[in-house]
Backbone:
């Protein structure tokens, strides 16, 4: 039987406090424990990925520590050279004394000289005299180290800024999913929108249903994954993602939602994770957008409000104020009810088709005798 539900607008659903594996903004709620010490060493070996994935606060600390530490380390070497050569103020110097570095008289001036050398400032007050071979070798080493640190830190900052997950922030899903009739089938619908005008090329949408199951052998499987196929009217691969799309999953006998009904849905314990993969048109980098829905965020008997309209100037306008809003519609109470109602209507439809094939008596039709024609052919 169908539910006749009053038509009123339903505001977007609130986030539930139920623990989930994937949050609404796509972060995975999982932690690893009891990791062996040898496995921690793998993060050091893969240092580039480790530095790119750490938080910005640690990147800034690393940035300051790398430059300040290198300046101070080389300042100690410059101070040692100046002290070994007797260039410091406290040391007794003769008139014939030849300095290795001009105007380096202590640790402070040695630090300033190290900073000026590595950053290529060169104020002119402190400089090498060229009389000591060790100073020439040290200035070459410090210049090379400074270039390496500059390249490494610029690469990390550029990589973090251009991470594909930043592009995923401009792709949003509806706060709730709905279940209603679509094209003669009971479907689960969600909405997804690209907030940028640049497209996501080769976009693909798919879902995973996470739930706890028990095998016939009595084994309990936590986070058992079941594939959930989503599609749009034009298919499910290579989506033309220029405007918000309404994705739907047909609830049939092969669907994991086949046994659900309007009454049992809120009592279920599962999590529907939806993925959208694509390539950013402007940067050619692959990105993935994720979100999840728990049973309390799936509305049975609702349909999304339309959000696309056409202006007087001929442009298409998207009203994001109705992006996650839905309205009650007439919907079967369960999939079995819908299939039973369809089966009951099918024989009546077949009889009607057979009647059309056999014809219907016309009460105004009259039967008249037609005389046989006379053969006037002569041999």
Residues:
């Amino acid at each position: 039987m169908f539910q006749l539900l009053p038509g009123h607008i339903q505001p977007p659903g609130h986030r539930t406090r139920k623990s989930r594996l994937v949050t609404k903004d796509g972060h995975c709620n999982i932690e690893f424990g009891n990791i062996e010490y040898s496995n921690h060493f793998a993060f050091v070996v893969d240092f580039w990925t480790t530095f790119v994935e750490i938080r910005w606060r640690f990147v800034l600390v690393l940035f300051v520590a790398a430059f300040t530490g290198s300046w101070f380390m080389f300042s100690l070497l410059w101070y040692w050279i100046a002290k070994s050569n007797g260039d410091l103020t406290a040391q007794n110097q003769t008139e014939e004394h030849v300095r290795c570095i001009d105007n380096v008289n202590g640790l402070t001036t040695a630090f300033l000289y190290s900073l000026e050398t590595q950053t290529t400032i060169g104020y002119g007050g402190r400089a090498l005299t060229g009389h000591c071979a060790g100073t020439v070798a040290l200035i070459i080493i410090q210049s090379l180290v400074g270039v390496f640190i500059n390249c490494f830190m610029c690469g990390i900052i550029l990589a973090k800024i251009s991470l594909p997950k930043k592009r995923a922030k401009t792709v949003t899903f509806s706060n709730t999913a709905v279940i209603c009739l679509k094209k003669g089938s009971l479907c689960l619908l969600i909405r997804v929108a690209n907030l940028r005008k640049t497209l996501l090329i080769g976009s693909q949408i798919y879902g995973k249903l996470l739930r706890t199951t028990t095998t016939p052998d009595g084994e309990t499987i936590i986070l058992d994954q079941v594939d959930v196929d989503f599609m749009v009217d034009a298919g499910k691969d290579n989506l033309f993602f220029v405007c918000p799309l309404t994705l739907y999953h047909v609830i049939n006998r092969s669907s994991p939602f086949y046994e659900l009904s309007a009454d049992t849905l809120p009592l279920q314990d599962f999590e529907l994770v939806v993925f959208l993969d694509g390539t950013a048109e402007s940067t050619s980098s692959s990105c993935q957008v994720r979100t999840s829905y728990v049973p309390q965020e799936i509305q049975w008997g609702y349909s999304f409000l339309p959000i696309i309209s056409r202006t007087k100037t001929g442009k298409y306008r998207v009203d994001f104020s109705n992006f996650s809003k839905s309205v009650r519609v007439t919907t079967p109470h369960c999939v079995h009810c819908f299939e039973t109602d369809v089966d009951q209507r099918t024989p009546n439809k077949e009889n009607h088709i057979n009647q059309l094939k056999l014809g219907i008596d016309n009460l105004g039709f009259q039967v008249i005798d037609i005389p046989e024609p006379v053969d006037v052919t002569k041999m």
Remarks:
- The chain has two domains: 39-162, 167-344.
- The two ends are 78 Å apart (CA to CA).
- The chain has a mean pLDDT of 80.
